[in-house]
């Protein structure tokens, strides 16, 4: 999303499903999910020098969940 004033909201979601053979088979079917939302902005100190600035780091530390297979 683009907010007024040139601020951007970046939302990243990913899910990793584990499929492991051998002695780690008990972890198969487990998953790790992330849902990260952060406010970012593009700044320009000099012409042609764009910088990506993360304005809110608190959301980067939350949003992880681990789901273990039953049993």
TrEMBL record:
InterPro entries: BPI_fold-BPI/LBP (IPR051660). It comes from the Eukaryota. This is BPIB4 protein. The gene is Bpifb4_2.
């Amino acid at each position: 999303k683009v907010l007024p004033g040139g601020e951007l909201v970046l939302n990243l979601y990913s899910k990793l499903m584990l499929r492991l053979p051998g002695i780690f088979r008990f972890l198969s079917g487990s998953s790790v999910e992330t849902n990260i939302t952060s406010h970012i902005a593009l700044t320009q100190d000099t012409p042609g020098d764009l910088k990506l600035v993360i304005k809110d780091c608190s959301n980067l530390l939350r949003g992880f969940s681990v789901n273990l297979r039953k049993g």
